Design the sequence.
């Protein structure tokens, strides 16, 4: 491992600090960057995420994708966790904490909005960042692609009705532009670029061409991650400092949800005798969220300054540190799996 990967948690911590400090010192700069968006998708963050996952797409060997059907248990595990368990546990935790545990600290209307934001996060499984977590745990890139792609297809059909069911809202509006644009930017375009790059390198009949390129791109992938972290925390610097107590209250059930879903998925993967290269990414998909979509829907349903919007933003803030800790745990427990 290079210096970037070895001390990644340190770099992320410094990036979080830098984002908050810069967001306070230069709010106009971050406001200008935040305004560069289309359909609630920030194009600058999309660019950095693209930089992050392009090297992972180069790793994908389409000739091996067909082998995914030989181990369907991993895909079935992902779908079961994401669509039959995760949304409901998120709703339950939201109700438990904001209707009971934190009832004396948050007024009922705000509590309801916080629960709504949590539900929107729970119904939106991660799309882009999963490729990062998969790479950091040496996950199977071909299998991860199939897992993410199937989730995206299902999300197109289930996001609206499942959100409406859990929110108790019959006329929920799904920003299809955000959903489709995110899939194109975070999955389709880097995938096409990665496939074309791989085909061109393989045409040279040089077995070292792909590994050499990946070695050169790996630092850029980490730089893309750190730049994304700086921007995300810079955008929310004022909120972090002005509402620390509310952010902490929201973060507690979100963190419990992430670790709980990971533990459940990881344990089931062990019971199903999956390989670590399949089990780790499957657990990461369930533990992380498609925060761009959740934020966009929260804003459209409840307003920019609502508790629901704040809850989805807190989901963004806690995700990277939490997922890095899960990456560390997954790597340290690789020996639990037979392969």
Sequence:
């Amino acid at each position: 491992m290079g210096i970037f990967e070895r001390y990644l948690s340190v770099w992320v911590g410094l990036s979080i600090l830098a984002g908050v400090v810069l967001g306070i010192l230069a709010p106009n700069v971050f406001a200008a960057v935040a305004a560069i968006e289309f359909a609630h998708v920030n194009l600058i963050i999309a660019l950095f995420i693209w930089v992050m996952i392009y090297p992972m797409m180069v790793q994908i060997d389409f000739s091996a994708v067909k082998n995914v059907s030989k181990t369907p248990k991993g895909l079935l595990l992902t779908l079961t966790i994401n669509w039959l368990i995760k949304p409901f546990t998120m709703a339950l935790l939201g109700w438990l904490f904001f209707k009971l545990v934190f009832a004396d600290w948050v007024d009922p209307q705000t509590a309801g909005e916080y629960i709504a934001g949590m539900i929107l996060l729970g119904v939106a499984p991660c799309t882009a960042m999963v490729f990062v977590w998969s790479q950091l745990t040496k996950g199977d890139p071909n299998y991860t692609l199939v897992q993410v792609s199937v989730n995206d297809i299902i999300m197109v059909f289930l996001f609206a009705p499942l959100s409406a069911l859990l929110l108790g809202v019959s006329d929920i509006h799904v920003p299809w532009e955000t959903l489709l644009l995110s899939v194109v930017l975070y999955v389709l375009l880097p995938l096409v670029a990665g496939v074309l790059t791989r085909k061109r390198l393989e045409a040279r009949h040089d077995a070292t061409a792909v590994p050499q390129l990946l070695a050169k791109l790996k630092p850029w992938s980490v730089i893309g991650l750190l730049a994304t972290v700086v921007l995300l925390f810079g955008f929310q610097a004022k909120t972090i400092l002005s509402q620390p107590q509310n952010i902490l209250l929201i973060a507690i059930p979100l963190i419990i949800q992430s670790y709980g879903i990971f533990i459940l998925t990881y344990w089931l993967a062990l019971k199903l005798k999956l390989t670590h290269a399949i089990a780790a990414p499957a657990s990461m998909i369930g533990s992380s969220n498609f925060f761009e979509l959740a934020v966009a829907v929260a804003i459209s349903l409840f307003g920019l300054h609502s508790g629901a919007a704040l809850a989805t933003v807190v989901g963004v803030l806690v995700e990277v540190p939490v997922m890095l800790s899960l990456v560390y745990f997954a790597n340290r427990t690789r020996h639990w799996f037979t392969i």
Remarks:
- The CA atoms of residues 86 and 220 lie 32 Å apart.
- The radius of gyration is 19 Å.
